[in-house]
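Handout, section B. The chain below has 251 residues.
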Amino acid sequence: MNNLLEIRDLEVGIEEKTILKGVDLEIKPGEIHVLMGQNGVGKSTLVSALMGDPKYEISGGQIILDGEDITDTKADYRARKGMFMSFQNPEEIPGVTVEDFLRAACGAVRGQKQKVLAFKKELYSVMDAMQMDHSYADRYLNVGFSGGEKKKTEILQLLMLKPRIAFLDETDSGLDIDAVRTVTNGIRDYHNSSNALVIITHNAQILEGLKIDKVHVIGNGSIVKTGGEELVRKIIEEGYSEFSKGGECDG
């Protein structure tokens, strides 16, 4: 099976400081990968660079999506090609409702303007599945939302946009048990044999009920350990003492 995403010897820095060096990773359709590591080793840096965040400079290596080298492409191009990222701290966007934002985003990804009534019906159907009140659609995106509401809205975006590959950056952070369950159910509804997931997390709660294919530990600016689902439990029980932390950096 061909790789959906391939990362070759990737080097990433910010403000002339190298954060990641020599990252190699292959992800096939249908797979779920988990990224773990101490705070500050570069997990968020990696997925942000993969999404094309201009704050991060790629100084070496390649990012291959569906056989296409997208290393030098911009974030909007990558999004249209089927990449998605759920943020640790989603931005508030006053003046733009959740519905308007999603209709514009889906139109850009799908390549055609979305009809208002048909789109509203589709949106409400997904919201019902997530047990979200329809009134969220009329609120400004993330404005006044609790942490849990913001994370649920990120999963709503995931389910509406249906990307080929999604990066979830600590989507479970700060959530209570019920909110984590809602997020996990949304992830299960999204995932199928044609797409892939990369989940950054520090605990196993969000992973319950998901079939994890590979777990990668980041340290010293690269992937220092790769294993199966059992590696998550080992880290939760024993910590990262056997892995080098590496330099201080963003996420």
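Note. The helical segments are 43-51, 75-80, 98-110, 116-129, 147-161, 177-190, 230-238. Compare this with the example in section A.
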